[in-house]
Amino acid sequence: MNRRHLFRLSTVFASALLASGMVPAAAQGASNQPITFIVPSAAGGSPDVLSRIVTNQWAQNANRPIVVENKPGAAGNIGIVQIMRGNALSIGYGNINTLAVNRSLFTTLPYDVDKDLVPVSHLFDLYNVLIVPSASDFKSVRDLMTSARKSPGKLSFGASGVGTTGHMSGELLNHLEKLDTVFVPYQGGPAAMQDLMGGRLDYMFVNTSEAVPLIKAGKVRALAVTRLGKRIDQLPEVPTMDEAGVKGYEIVSWGGVVGNRKMSPEQAKALAADLDKVLQAPNVRESLQGLGAQPVGGTPEDFQKLIASETKKWAEIIESSKIQKLN
């Protein structure tokens, strides 16, 4: 490992610890101070699994422990609040839900993305797959849309919660194609998946990391992926939503790292540079891509621009689709 790289990372975090009052000045050179990384969702889901791939390599590069803490609840808001209220070293996972969708989906939020959080790095992009039960009569997206138009309000789709990309993917389809279908929220993805495979739901949009194994096992059928312009490597035979007839459709379940306002711009830039090196590691890239996630990286400014554009996009969709806002 590069000694200069390790020294620089240790200095960044030591400075953050010193500024927060967590350790005395004499200890600021210590490189074994644990870093807590907060994931605002349950263990075992895509955010958790993908975050751990990154943090495991990050801990190796920095030669210091990184502890992942899962703080699920309230559509991710609980975990984000913990990041916001932490010290200068408080960092965690932020994604399309907590940094963009929730800003328009909730009437009020316990945090302000622009004022309380600091974007650090856009880690990866992940896509969804439109799936139906293996015994479904729907062989294409066109079949599904034809049925929805013939019987408004009859077809149902589920997701692991309100505001998730599984939910928003269905709402975007309804918005673009003027469909009337019923959304059924669940407390977690496994219950929704069981109902889909049992025929109690008509379709779902699910992250590739969860959908691909079930598709390969023949337990569900894939109709399309939510990537625009290119099919995904894991399912080369499955068309994009655009190819399937829903022009311009795209949902990217992006995720990244955020800190809070106690983190300086210099610290955010240094962390982004270190995370870029993590994402360039062959084992990390292979692991992420094996689950359908595309490594991205970049500067805090890059991540901020993505958050702003996605916030605007989802505000317009939520408003035009008349999705009921949450308290």
Question: What is the compact description of this entry?
Answer:
The protein is built from 12 helices and 11 strands.
Describe this structure in words.
This protein has 327 residues and is α/β, with parallel strands linked by helices. It is built from 12 helices and 11 strands. Helix 2 crosses helix 10 and helix 4 packs parallel to helix 12. The longest helix is centred in the last third of the chain and has 21 residues. The radius of gyration is 20 Å and the shape is globular.
Structural class by SSE content? alpha/beta
The major pleated sheet works out as: 6 strands, mixed
Q: Indicate the overall shape.
A: globular
**Gyration radius, to the nearest Å?**
20 Å
Strand content: 15-25%
Indicate the percent of residues in helices.
40-55%
Number of helical regions: 12
Assembly of the depicted chains: single chain
- DSSP, total strands: 11
Mean pLDDT: 88
Unreliable stretches: 1-30
Major sheet: order of its strands?
Answer: 2-1-3-10-4-11
- What is the string of helix and strand elements? HEHEHEHHEEHEHEHEHEEHHEH
Give the N-to-C terminal Cα separation: 48 Å
SSE inventory with pairings:
Blueprint: H1 3-20, E1 35-39, H2 46-62, E2 66-70, H3 77-85, E3 91-95, H4 96-105, H5 113-116, E4 117-126, E5 128-133, H6 141-150, E6 156-159, H7 165-177, E7 182-185, H8 189-197, E8 203-207, H9 208-216, E9 220-225, E10 255-260, H10 265-280, H11 282-290, E11 293-295, H12 300-320
Parallel strand pairs: 1-2, 1-3, 6-7, 6-8
Antiparallel strand pairs: 3-10, 4-10, 4-11, 5-8, 5-9
Helix pairs in contact: 1-10, 2-10, 4-12
